[in-house]
Specification:
The protein is mostly helical and 153 residues long. The chain is built from seven helices and no strands. It is 64% helix and 0% strand. Helix 1 crosses helix 3. The N and C termini lie far apart (56 Å).
C-alpha cells in the first residue's frame, strides 16, 4: 500500500518547479504585458541581434508589468513604494533614452559592402548579423571580428 502524502503535495506536479500554475491573463493589456515579459526570458547568443530584438519589445507594456509586479509583492509603506517606483521609472526612462541614442548612432554608421562580405565569409554570419556587428563597432571590420571571437569577460 502507498504511504499517505502530505497535504501540500499534489500528484503529477514537479516539486522542483518553483513557478506556481496561474490562470492565463484575462485582459488584453495583461496578455500584452505577459508577452513582453516572456520575450525577455529567451536567451540570445548574438549580441548584435539583441539590439534588433529590443526594438520588438513593447516598452510600455513591459513597464506596466514590472510596476504591477512590484506592487503585488507588497512593498511596505505607500510612500516607500511610490518612491521606489519613481526611482525605477527614472532608471527605465534613462535606459530607454540611452538605447534610442545607440540605435540612432548605429543608424548613421555606414557598413562597407567589402567589410560585410569579409565578415560573412570569415565568421559565417548572415548578411544582417554581419551588418549589425559592423555598425556596432563603427564600421571597423577588425574590431568587429575581434569582438565576435573574444569571449566576454
Amino acid at each position: 500500500m502507498a504511504e499517505p502524502q502530505p497535504p501540500n503535495i499534489h500528484e503529477g506536479t514537479d516539486p522542483t518547479d518553483e513557478t506556481p500554475a496561474t490562470a492565463p491573463p484575462a485582459s488584453a493589456e495583461d496578455r500584452k504585458a505577459a508577452a513582453a515579459l516572456s520575450s525577455l526570458d529567451n536567451p540570445n547568443d548574438d549580441s548584435a541581434a539583441q539590439t534588433s530584438k529590443a526594438k520588438n519589445i513593447d516598452q510600455d507594456a513591459l513597464a506596466k508589468a514590472i510596476s504591477r509586479l512590484e506592487l503585488s509583492t507588497g512593498a511596505k509603506g505607500a510612500e516607500s513604494s511610490e518612491q521606489h517606483i519613481s526611482e525605477k521609472e527614472k532608471l527605465f526612462q534613462e535606459r530607454r533614452r540611452r538605447e534610442r541614442e545607440e540605435r540612432e548612432r548605429m543608424a548613421k554608421v555606414k557598413a562597407e559592402a567589402a567589410d560585410v562580405a569579409l565578415l560573412i565569409q570569415e565568421l559565417e554570419l548572415s548578411k544582417t548579423k554581419a551588418t549589425d556587428l559592423l555598425k556596432a563597432h563603427e564600421g571597423d571590420a577588425v574590431r568587429a571580428m575581434r569582438a565576435f571571437v573574444t569571449a566576454p569577460v
